[in-house]
Specification:
- The chain is of the alpha+beta class.
- It has a single domain (about 10-120), classed as Alpha-Beta Plaits.
- About 40% of the residues lie in helices and about 35% in strands.
- Strand 2 and strand 3 form a beta hairpin.
- The longest helix is centred in the first third of the chain and has 13 residues, at about 15-30.
- The two termini are about 25 Å apart.
- About 25% of the residues are buried.
């Protein structure tokens, strides 16, 4: 695979601190994410016309665009919030060796796509 053939995304989501590690582990074990950083966060927002303030964890998820739809679906299925925040940002400049490592860690996605394409 050539360098930067596929887009690298940084996806972030917030969740209760006691759910962060299980969400991160699921995404990495499924080869949807190469790495997930878990950071403490304090969120302030309106929900159902009430001002809310919550201690949360912010997950920074490094993945590839090819896996985004599945990653989003899994987050939504295991996330405890009714409306989880899931935002993807395209990484414009990525160090080459790190990019290659992300591709290797998420290679399972390419293998599955090739298997499906070959079965048609």
């Amino acid at each position: 695979m050539n360098y930067m053939d596929q887009d690298l995304l940084i996806v972030y989501t917030t969740c209760p601190p006691d759910k962060a590690e299980s969400i991160a582990e699921t995404l990495v074990q499924e080869h949807l994410a190469a790495c997930v950083n878990i950071l403490p966060a304090r969120s302030v927002y309106f929900w159902e016309s009430k001002l809310c303030r919550d201690e949360e964890s912010l997950l920074l998820i490094k993945c590839r665009k090819v896996s985004y739809a599945r990653l989003e679906a899994i987050i939504k299925s295991i996330h405890p919030y009714q409306l989880p925040e899931i935002v993807a940002v395209k990484a414009e400049d990525v160090q080459k060796d790190y990019y290659n490592w992300v591709c290797e860690q998420t290679k399972y996605i390419d293998d599955n796509a090739n298997d499906k394409a070959g079965s048609k």
